[in-house]
């Protein structure tokens, strides 16, 4: 995704900062990371509070193969498909990601 597409995706939050990381990009709002782009897929931050909502919507949790071949689950989830067709639905998901980022600081 190019930066303009990312900014449009997160417009419900307001301005975002995009930084290169992990061979992809990190998306920040108000200094908090809310999403990462990995292998051309945007993944939103979630936590114990919001992850069940992502799972119920059919999203997938990002995991990578760690040492000894064991999967390492990360706190990032795919964006539910219906969000890409509806800015209001996308706004809900990106707000959940920001709320998870705020809770992670505490």
From TrEMBL:
Source organism superkingdom: Bacteria
Domain TfoX N-terminal as annotated: residue spans: 8-101
Pfam families hit by this protein: TfoX_N (PF04993)
Protein name from the UniProt record: DNA transformation protein
Annotated InterPro entries: TfoX-like, TfoX_N
PANTHER family listed in its UniProt record: PROTEIN SXY
């Amino acid at each position: 995704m190019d930066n303009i597409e990312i900014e449009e995706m997160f417009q419900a939050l307001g301005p975002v900062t995009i930084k290169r990381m992990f061979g992809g990009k990190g998306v920040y709002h108000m200094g908090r990371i809310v999403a990462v782009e990995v292998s051309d897929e945007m993944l939103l931050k979630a936590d114990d509070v919001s992850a069940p909502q992502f799972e119920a919507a059919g999203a997938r949790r990002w995991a990578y193969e760690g040492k000894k071949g064991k999967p390492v689950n990360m706190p990032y989830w795919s964006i539910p498909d219906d969000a890409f067709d509806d800015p209001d639905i996308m706004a809900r998901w990106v707000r959940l990601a920001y709320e998870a980022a705020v809770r992670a600081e505490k």
